[in-house]
Amino acid sequence: MPGFVFFIALIAVGITVWRLVTPRGGARVHDVEGRRIGPGMGIELGRGLPVVAAGIVLLLLLATSVRVVGVGHGLVIFNTLTKGFRLARQGVAIVPPVISAVQDYDLRRLEYTMSGVSSEGRKRNIDDSLWSPTQEGLQVGIDLTVWHHLDPAQVVTIHQKIGPDYEEKIIRPAVRSVIRLVISEYAVMDVYSSKRAQIQDEINVKIKSLVEKDGFIVDEVVLRDVRFTPEFAKAIEAKQIAQQSAEQMKYTLEKEQKEAERKVIEARGRANAIEVINKALAQNPNYIRYLYVDKLSDKIQVIVSDQNTIMDLKGILEGRVR
Questions:
Q1: 63 to each of 17, 21, 60, how far by Cα in Å?
Q2: Mean pLDDT rounded to a whole number for the chain
Q3: Global pTM?
């Protein structure tokens, strides 16, 4: 609203200048050649030049008072005379020159990354992972990204109390504090694998409750990676190798046990079969002779002479003929 009033005032001044330099009506005196003459003409021009100069200066001031606020941005304007603040949103804004101090804020979603990879984090060429002790006291490094944006209704207050470097003053310290608080409540293997999603959700809740009351809206905190000290990383690798060996040994033992069980079952089956056969032979002794004869070749003709003798009749006959 003050900018609009200032703009109207500049227009009024411009109209006044235009009326001053515009020739007024009245008696005009001309020479014989038709040129206008008059004793007050030089005085009028002499008074008009400063007015024209003032008008040009005012127009330049008007031009410099027009600011274009980018899409998704907000311009905080501080009037040094009235000591008042206002926020101009995207588009054209009128900013009174000389008496105004301005600061541009990006109101879109911003990304703040802390990473051990030098090309990823906000702070380049350093290990910016958040190192924190776990429940056992072991150090783990957390790489994460914070997506956040400003509440437009709180931008003026943020500018007055914190300033444009709010990420370094508020977002980063809040994230570091919450990370250390949450990680210290979990065991190292929980952080490494099983409860990682639960940890991320808890971090989100705590950071949001910590900073959103001041106008900083946290959209999401994403855990990108979990890092360990080189010694612990080697210990984890050795443990995984041992677990794989144990799993392989367990598989081998189970396989051998199943094979032994199969052989026991097979032996029991054979024993049961022999027991059945023995019972059958006890009831009918001639059954074994039948089985023996049944297994002989079809070309053999046999005669059972007694219980202990089996003769090949065909073989005997063929021998006599020869």
A1: 17, 21, 5
A2: 78
A3: 0.58
